[in-house]
Write a structure and sequence with these properties.
Strand content: 15-25%
Radius of gyration: 17 Å
Number of domains: 1
Number of strands: 4
Structural class: alpha+beta
Shape: elongated
Distance between the termini: 27 Å
Order of helices and strands: EEHHEEH
């Protein structure tokens, strides 16, 4: 599957595709300023269970799961090219994941063949370190 570039309204790349060099600190600061400013304007706390930080971590993890599923199946959600492909999405199940900031509720996607295994769920010693969260033992057990 092709690398994705996430773009803003001006079609300017704001995130690297997989395999691109790691983005430096100034770019991360630029990305962080807009949601922080909006949270302040809307009266949203930056920390806490319903805060911006928890919401962003939840959304990044959920998006990561959805991207992994698209990579696993070879097509994006609702893409007509997936019809008759032999495997498809089959809903999701709720899972509470222990992260560095506390527990986060996610919806883990499933495929019809039951072969999708998200990276943080794999049963490996210490879990997978590519996510900004550590998987709890219960998540690794499934």
């Amino acid at each position: 599957m092709a690398n994705r570039k996430y773009v803003d309204a001006d079609e300017t790349s704001v995130m690297p595709a997989r395999g691109d060099p790691v983005v430096g600190l100034p770019a991360l600061r630029d990305w962080a300023e807009a949601p922080v400013e909006r949270a302040r304007a809307d009266g949203v706390q930056l920390t806490g269970q319903d805060g911006l930080r928890t919401g962003l971590i939840r959304q990044v993890l959920q998006t990561g799961l959805e991207v992994e599923m698209a990579d696993h199946l070879g097509y994006e959600h609702s893409d007509p090219s997936g019809r008759g492909s032999g495997n498809s999405r089959n809903g999701s199940y709720p899972k509470t994941v222990a992260t560095e900031i506390g527990e986060v509720d996610l919806h883990i996607p499933r495929d019809r063949h039951g072969t999708f295994e998200p990276r943080p769920c794999r049963s490996t010693p210490g879990g997978w370190t590519g996510w900004p969260a550590k998987s709890s033992a219960s998540m690794r057990r499934g």
